[in-house]
Amino acid sequence: MKKFDVVVVGGSAAGLTAAITARRHYPDKSIAIVRQEQRVLVPCGIPYIFGTLGKPEMNLVPDAIHDKNRLDLVISEATGLDREKKVLQTSDGEIGYERLVIATGSRPAMPPVPGFDLEGVYAIVKDVSYLSKLQQHIEAAQNIVIIGGGFIGIEFADEINKLGGKRVHVVELLPHCLSLAYDEDFCIAMEEIIRSRGVELVTGVKVDRVLGEDRVTGVALGDGSKIDADLVILGIGSVANIDLAKQAGLRIGLTGGLAVDLAMKTSDDSIFACGDCAEKISFFGGRPSPLKLASIAAQEARVAGANLYGLRRESPGIVGAWATAVGETAIATAGLTEEMATRHGYDFVSVEIGGVNRHPGGMPGAVDMRLKAVFERKSGVLLGGQVMGDQAVGELVNVISSCVQNRMRADDIAMFAISTHPALTASPIAYHLVNAAEMAIEKM
Amino acid sequence: MKKFDVVVVGGSAAGLTAAITARRHYPDKSIAIVRQEQRVLVPCGIPYIFGTLGKPEMNLVPDAIHDKNRLDLVISEATGLDREKKVLQTSDGEIGYERLVIATGSRPAMPPVPGFDLEGVYAIVKDVSYLSKLQQHIEAAQNIVIIGGGFIGIEFADEINKLGGKRVHVVELLPHCLSLAYDEDFCIAMEEIIRSRGVELVTGVKVDRVLGEDRVTGVALGDGSKIDADLVILGIGSVANIDLAKQAGLRIGLTGGLAVDLAMKTSDDSIFACGDCAEKISFFGGRPSPLKLASIAAQEARVAGANLYGLRRESPGIVGAWATAVGETAIATAGLTEEMATRHGYDFVSVEIGGVNRHPGGMPGAVDMRLKAVFERKSGVLLGGQVMGDQAVGELVNVISSCVQNRMRADDIAMFAISTHPALTASPIAYHLVNAAEMAIEKM
Known about the structure:
Chain A is an alpha/beta fold. Chain A is built from 11 helices and 24 strands. Chain A folds into 3 domains: about 1-105 and about 240-305, FAD/NAD(P)-binding domain, CATH 3.50.50.60; about 110-235, 3-Layer(bba) Sandwich (FAD/NAD(P)-binding domain); about 320-444, FAD/NAD(P)-binding domain. In chain A, the strands form 6 sheets. In chain A, strands 1, 2, 3, 4, 5, 6 and 17 form a 7-stranded mixed sheet that branches. The longest helix of chain A is centred in the C-terminal third of the chain and has 14 residues, at about 295-305. The model of chain A has no long low-confidence stretch (mean pLDDT about 95). Chains A and B meet through helix 1, helix 7, strand 20, strand 21 and helix 9 of A and helix 1, helix 7, strand 20, strand 21 and helix 9 of B.
């Protein structure tokens, strides 16, 4: 029987980062990653395979990283777990461990909608050959319907639309696309951009069934209308892969993820979990959070990996920071939107501010940038921010995320030591985040 | 005699921001800006007049901002100050005040080098007609020598070089350009880029004199060599404009700026100061800081403006965060470099890390990004970071600045809630700042 000090099940954002972190913190331990995939896809890159990257093979996590970090790689399916004996069962035999990290990720949600089992209906499975098959089907298809208008749905739609000559629909149950991440005004602005690029958005309507005999021919909606389709892609969320954990009797959390404490330890002292398979706790109020993001997976993995042989870190909880881009426009969010803050029960002040992202406004790359910030009213603490503009928004949202994580107050942010430059940012006088803080103070 | 509750002397980054902040915090007060310029230039945009923007008139702060914030504008030179009577003397008469904000900025340093008074030698004066004259001269010139290889010198050189058909030299006293902002390796990388674009850099040598009878013909260097020149531009720093303050008997600080406390109050309880004319205190250790930046001016102005009728804010001190860009490459810094940390007396750990700014690496816009972070060894507190890469570096450095301002430790940064996206940032596994923190922990 093989044996390693540390065995990590899963080789994507969570598993790989947990193993690298373990290597950094425990240089003398033997560490193995057990994964079932021959090749691991960059999870967030999957939509970009179809328009920008060209094929799944262009979207792989480089395996050289294992050698660089002295990680053993075992390509095998984890089939069972004997916690008493500290043995992981795999399709190729048993592997002993001292510490186990479960990072088995998630799989697409498959609600029991009639027709979801027809040929020509694809979920987003993180598998190279599955996605190659999907790609061939996309290239041949004329009418493509994407069910779900969240990040993944929108990114798939825009990428497929880039191929040209296809009719692409997105069907979203909620009144607006992206509305689990942004307030309505930001969603509407983004919907306008997506539509202007030729994607058709159908919102506020449910999918009754996918039509067809053997193969999909269309989608029937709750309002009685139909959309022709020779290909349907489901982008409607994901569920934690907890079969291994469940079978081993580990505690499962309220949202269906593997229960963990702040150290990312499961109900077994030798077993940690991180990433999409693990239950998450919100940074705001400490309740379970349904968010699943690769960046959260990596964050949790850096906690789990450091704690394997002694607690060194406690997870601060899930802030929720993410971004997407359509064409030249990027949109990003960190922490709470107004709608989320209301739902959490905060008394808050919200400020929205526009203005050019360069100074003077005639500098190349100048676009109108829009930022909304939400502050708790009494304390002035920043709860979250949404921002839309050029590509630098991808890092600007990390400024917001940092302020949120540090529980900065509006008054602190008003004294933020900003770096500004004519060719790169808004002016120091007009810098959006700082001015939003000042305007929030006026309203408190 | 005119009288306002609040009179601000100076209408650039500091003065204008102080007035806007005063308006926000004191909605019922009358507020006037007294400035001598008909039109105010965006200070950091000045180099970009010559290549990118086309003329000084394309680089103005829009005056509409005064109406929008109910600010009276008095275009007049401040000539004296009667603190007893609370009266500002101007070239057009007296103006009474309850609170005065001195934001008179800085002027170019003019060391007593022989030939600096010749025709054809220009300093960077923030004046539209002066810069128009300089622009005409630049367009006619063949051989241009820029003395000083800091941000301004480099930006002027690159912009002038874009015009084509000119020989542009930068002469820098220190061994490397930009070395007051970056460690040597970053300076060298940036020098290579600047040189590759056709600008000639002469470093580690002093200017002995500017040659010529009436008009400049060349520059004689300390190593005995000469450079032909029909135009010389000085970018060798600036000195605080404190004539008004000095004449009024206000206390002056160690670095020659107007002395202020943490509230930005001068030695007179009714008079505040901010921006280039005000003495600065470092965030690190509290000693005077020689930095003068528009973003610092705006930060101080937000402290001064809020405190006019009751202390609401205290300046956290000068972190020092700024950026520049040459072609597609941006470079930025926040807080301390290794060299500065050594000078301050810190025991530190420094980590430098490279890697692509997209994921997967085949995404459009992918370039190798380089980040260096400096942590105090015992506490793990982040002291500063330097970063070089694409334009998003302009906001990424604000993430670093935020971490510095919040005195985040390497361990906190290892658990940073990052937003990542294939088209916008590095991957969550490889995100530079977080990995630099992890690597620093290994070295502590």
